[in-house]
Design goal:
This protein folds into 3 domains: 153 residues, Rossmann fold (3-Layer(aba) Sandwich); 91 residues, no CATH class; 107 residues. Helices cover 55% and strands 11% of the residues. Helix 4 links the parallel strand 6 and strand 7. Strands 3-2-8-7-6-1-4-5 form an 8-stranded mixed sheet, sandwiched between helices. By secondary structure, it is an alpha/beta fold. Helix 4 packs across helix 5.
Length: 405
């Protein structure tokens, strides 16, 4: 069902012919009357938002004009002269909108703050009611031509801008690119560079959420090319232009994680540095489980990288990681294969900074891995504090081992 929501003030309106794209209405004082002829299919429901004064002055005439076409439903609101009244307006209009409705907002005759409120209501019901805002229209009477034809402007992109705002906030505050990707994909005429950038951002943030550091590094390394393609003249069409404002923030946020070949043995120390940036990112986003998960594996990687002088230790080798984990746990040979731990790995694992961090990680792992399923489990706030404390000690520990960070 398509619902037209039209606002009426107490002003004296004059007849005009409203023109929307190639369609013209009959001469009328009311945009709500014209809209029934301008849109196909015509709205099946009409909400007319009025104050007491506007109702007295205009509602009867509008109802008469629409006789046999549609019966207006009135939504009585205060004049909006205080914050409390503005909230009342918001609540009364939002309460009339049904789940999954398609909406056309007509703000032609909106008064005072009504156009702004209409924009905010449109953004709210899109989420809370799963409504679809088809059009946000304004009949510009002052721009009418000598033939008394008034152009109708479609301001729907302004409502879309609020969607971009929400999606941008999700990306920068929580590291989720799902909404951003979906917005780009909904734009039928989006340039391929827009789709490419949105898809890579989604892949990158999904890899971060799933704790896949190698995938993060590789994907982040491809971002500069995607950013450059998007920045080319005429690459970004108007529908995805808000994405362009994010380019600097994207580069600053994810550039430090980039490494094209994270599985190269000679780049082990670079991998350590990039993963440290990821841990920092997790902490900033409040993702303490991912921060801890990577921190534990990072410590094992640090032991291998610090003990390696000639590229002998592959950071992704299960047997190598078993050696390092055996060492930090205080043993000299592996339990599964009784393989002796090389002296250099033992030496690094026994460094005070590594031992202290690993001890704290073991305690945290038992709590996190078992989801606090024990009596008197620590509160989430305390667990997060402990994770943040451990993560704050990683860079100094790395520096103590002679890494350049």
């Amino acid at each position: 069902m398509t619902t037209l929501i039209s606002f009426l003030g107490a002003t004296d309106y004059r007849d005009t012919i409203y023109v929307y794209r190639s369609r013209k209405s009959h001469a009328t004082r009311y945009m709500a009357d014209a809209a029934m002829a301008l849109f196909e299919p015509a709205p099946q429901r009409l909400l007319v938002v009025v104050t007491e004064e506007a109702r007295t002055k205009h509602l009867e005439a509008l109802t008469r004009n629409l006789s046999g076409v549609i019966e207006p439903e009135q939504v009585l609101i205060p004049s909006g002269q205080s914050e409390a009244e503005q909230w009342t307006i918001f609540e009364r209009i939002a309460a009339q909108i049904r789940p999954n409705e398609e909406l056309i907002f007509d703000i032609t005759n909106g008064f005072r703050s009504i156009p702004v409120l209409a924009l905010l209501i449109a953004a709210y019901v899109r989420v809370a009611r799963r409504a679809t805002v088809r059009h946000l229209i304004y009949g510009a009477f002052d721009a009418r031509n000598p033939d008394n034809e008034t152009p109708v402007f479609d301001l729907t992109p302004l409502a879309a801008l609020l969607e971009w705002t929400t999606a941008t906030d999700a990306l920068l505050k929580y590291g989720r690119a799902d909404a951003l990707r979906d917005l780009v994909q909904q734009r039928a005429h989006a340039h391929s560079s827009s789709n490419q950038l949105a898809q890579q951002l989604h892949q990158l943030t999904a890899a971060l959420q799933a704790s896949r550091p190698a995938e993060v590094m590789r994907t982040a390394a491809t971002l500069p090319e995607a950013l450059a393609a998007f920045s080319e003249p005429n690459a970004a069409d108007g529908s995805t232009r808000p994405l362009g404002l994010l380019l600097g923030a994207i580069e600053q946020e994810y550039g430090p994680m980039a490494l094209a070949q994270p599985d190269e043995r000679r780049l082990a120390r670079e991998v350590i540095g990039k993963q440290l940036e990821m841990i920092k990112w997790y902490v900033a986003k409040g993702l303490c489980v991912q921060a801890f998960t990577l921190t534990r594996e990072w410590l094992i990687s640090v032991v291998l990288a610090a003990a390696d002088s000639d590229g002998a230790y592959d950071l992704y080798s299960e047997s190598n990681r078993e050696l390092a984990e055996t060492a930090v746990n205080g043993f000299k040979q592996t339990q599964r294969s009784s393989r002796p731990v090389p002296a250099r790995i033992l030496e690094i694992a026994n460094q005070p900074a590594i031992r202290s961090l690993w001890k704290e990680c073991r305690a945290l792992r038992n709590d996190l891995a078992h989801a606090g399923m024990r009596r008197n489990a620590e509160a989430a706030k305390q667990v997060e504090k402990r994770v943040r404390d451990v993560c704050s000690r990683l860079r100094p520990a790395l520096q103590a081992l002679g890494f350049e960070v």
